Amino acid sequence: MWNANARVRVLIPAEALSARISELAAEISRDHAQTERLVVVGVLKGSVLFLADLVKQITVPVELDFCQTASYGSGQEPGEIHLKKDVELPLRGADVLVVEDIVDTGWTLRTLLDLFRHRRPRSVRLCTLLDKAEAREVEVPIDYCGFRIPRQFVVGYGLDWGERYRQLPYIGVVESASEEIP
User: Fold this and answer.
1) Domains of the chain and CATH, by start
2) Handedness of CA 101, 143, 33, 20 (dihedral sign)
3) In Å, how far from its chain's centre is CA 16?
4) What is the pTM of this model?
5) How many other CB atoms sit within 10 Å of the CB of residue 88?
6) Which residue among 53, 95, 101, 104 is the active-site one?
7) What digits encode the pLDDT tens for the residues 13-46?
8) Exposed e or buried b for every residue in 133-162, given b needs 16+ CB within 10 A?
9) CA angle, corner 68, sides to 118 and 72, nearest 5?
């Protein structure tokens, strides 16, 4: 449940986000300089702000698409995800770059990466803004990582708490006296 009295402490300021995203875009551009077809797939909704800032700085041509996943709810098996929106572009033969806001347990990303690999792209790589490795339950290869963060609940810059806080220009930690924070 969202708490209207919650405070958000800045963990990663906007300036640090901007600088690191520029570095990531340069790395991606360098690594894909000879790529004939780069398909960048944003994982909705959390990656949108990160994705927009990232692709504006990538210097090689990109095709842009989106997918959206959801967990089936309580009682689900780990790794059981529902694909709410699939990509529309064909991935066969393309270099695919999946852009995600955060990798924590790894179940959703591992399932999504496996799905994309079955479509026979030339390559599949993962770029995440945040890596919460302490929460990892399954291995996920991260090719481009913005920041490694501790096991805290974070919001801002696309990440939400009950659909709120996505618009914050920084990554913050929700601080509250309430025990309702996930």
Assistant:
1) 14-30+37-69+90-149 (3.40.50.2020)
2) positive
3) 17
4) 0.90
5) 8
6) 104
7) 999 999 999 999 999 999 999 999 999 999 999 9
8) eeeeeeebebebbbbebeebebbbbbbbbe
9) 90
Burial call 17-26: b when 16+ CB within 10 Å, e when fewer? beeebeebbe
93-105 mean pLDDT: 96
79 pLDDT exceeds 70? no
pLDDT computed for residue 82 by the predictor: 84
Q: What are the CA-CA distances from residue 57 to residues 119, 169, 173, 179 (Å)?
A: 27, 18, 27, 40
Assess contact for 97 and 125: CB atoms under 8 A.
yes
**Which position has the token pair 């300021």?**
13
160 a catalytic residue: no
Q: What tokens were used for 167?
A: 């618009």
Hey, which bits of 5-143 come out as E strands?
A: 7-12, 38-44, 63-71, 81-85, 95-103, 123-131
